[in-house]
## 1
Amino acid sequence: MAHHPHDEHEHEHHERGHGHGHGHDHGDIDWAELAPLLEAQAELFTPLYEHALSWLAQEVTEPGLIVDAGSGPGVISSLFAETFPGARVVAVDGSEALLERARARAERQGVADRFGTLAGELPEVLGELDYPADLLWASRSVHHLGDQGAALAACAGRLAPGGTLAVMEGGLPARFLPRDIGFGRPGLQARIDVAEEERFDRMRAELPGSVAAVEDWPALLASAGLHHTRSRTFLLDLPAPATDRARAYVVAALTRTREIIAEDLDADDRATLDRLLDPDDGASVHHRPDVFVLAAHTVHSAVRPV
Ligand SMILES: C[S@@+](CC[C@H](N)C(=O)[O-])C[C@H]1O[C@@H](n2cnc3c(N)ncnc32)[C@H](O)[C@@H]1O
């Protein structure tokens, strides 16, 4: 089963061969360079994460330790700290630069006293946690690990009995524009999705220790020894007219598409994308009135037997 490059942020998968300032090796993505995009994305998607977290909160009561594995800049980690005021939250990531942002955010949100970070390679670094987790969350990070089944088993192994593992993986490709935008061949975003599927596949194949796996997340969680699997999809629905923030995000996401997969599109679609990104063009995403953000992310959760 193919992965759905379910949102524009999956573009980061395709980053290749840039700087190596993050000091670890998990593919060629320069996560620190992506920090502003990751952070702006997570901030815009906050309503979606809030729904996901309140869904989790129905089942997970008074967790002592919450671990955010592959936290990136920690927008969701801080949301966890706010949603579960009795919990300590540890953000874990391979990029120290991103964890620095996570700590700064926790400070700004007033939750720094129960917020920590742990830098290192997933999933091995989870072995350095002092305590088992009552809730371990991994959003859009497991698919960056070569052996996803082994990664889930490692996560499950760090849960306290009765603890919950929740992974956000899959969903639907995001939409920003109507099918027909008045120029170019209709259906541009669907063709971008196809190109991204191909890139995603190559990204996974090139990961260290890459293992092919059927991306049946409930089955993978069950194989990791967990039970009570549940899946639910959360929507981000920011209709037109877009706010400045949503519009800026669409510009950033399509700019990244242009950088990463433009050569996989045909010349007509490339020209359409160029026009959409030209600030001097009244029909570009900088100005057009019909820009929106519609995205769907799926959370799969499961519980470690007591
Ligand atoms: C797509 S971002 C997701 C960030 C955040 N969880 C979110 O949903 O917005 C993936 C994150 O996983 C981290 N990551 C990817 N591969 C990793 C690895 N092998 N070890 C540790 N962290 C890794 C990256 O540094 C990045 O912050």
Note: Residues 12, 26, 31, 38, 42, 70-72, 76, 93-95, 98, 121-122, 139-141, 144-145 surround S-adenosylmethionine (CB under 6 Å).
## 2
Amino acid sequence: MHADSATPRPVPDPLDFERLLDARASCRGFLPAPVPEATLGRILRAAQRTPSWNNVQPWQVIVTQPPATGKLRAALQEPQPEEAGFEIPPPSEYRGVYLERRRACGFGLYASVGIAKGDREASARQGAENFRLFGAPHMALVTSDRLLGTYGVLDCGAYVNNFMLAATANGVATIAQAALAQRSAFLRRWFGIAEDRLIVCGISLGYADPAHPANRFRTSRAPIEDTVRWVRE
Ligand SMILES: Cc1cc2nc3c(=O)[nH]c(=O)nc-3n(C[C@H](O)[C@H](O)[C@H](O)COP(=O)(O)O)c2cc1C
């Protein structure tokens, strides 16, 4: 298997890919055991095959290993000074079906971890888990090139997804975290990220804690009838 080889390779069984898609779900409770570096390398090499416009490959990724991940986690618990948040504007509003899906996702998570509707304190505690990296032993911070704009970010999104699928194929659980991009100023200082990079999101990764209630929850998807318009003539 070589990325530069022009020889077509046999197409895998589509069911293999669908099983992989089904096997991936966001993990919000990790075991502390680190992932061997060889496995991390394999995931990174697989994600590196992501296509991008003009093959510019705008993603750069900072991967933390223990004890660096623990130091980062501890620093994220410190009171944060008032400073710039997201560098990519977050959604200004969720309306209609998007609001419904967002709520369904939130309520599903709250139900699985036992947070009652309207318990703001408990939901804030659950939200704060983002900054504990859900206990993960590793965090991968994905940045794009600022000059490549929205399409660069789009390429990074494809990279994030391939990274998560590659991790799943290696038995490693993940969660993409836009929440971390909210701490852009802090992350920039912490990792010494240059101004020409744009902080896209983090991915916490490690082995899933099967006993963690947050991992019992699964999201659903709208049927394709809601998202596809066929044009036949
Ligand atoms: C780009 C991106 C950013 C996300 N950011 C967060 C986040 O900050 N915190 C969180 O708990 N989940 C986050 N998620 C996870 C989504 O909530 C999750 O993917 C979605 O609800 C579908 O569930 P699934 O991943 O289990 O299939 C993010 C997902 C993506 C793709």
Note: The pocket of flavin mononucleotide is lined by residues 25-26, 105, 130, 175-179, 201, 219 (CB under 6 Å).
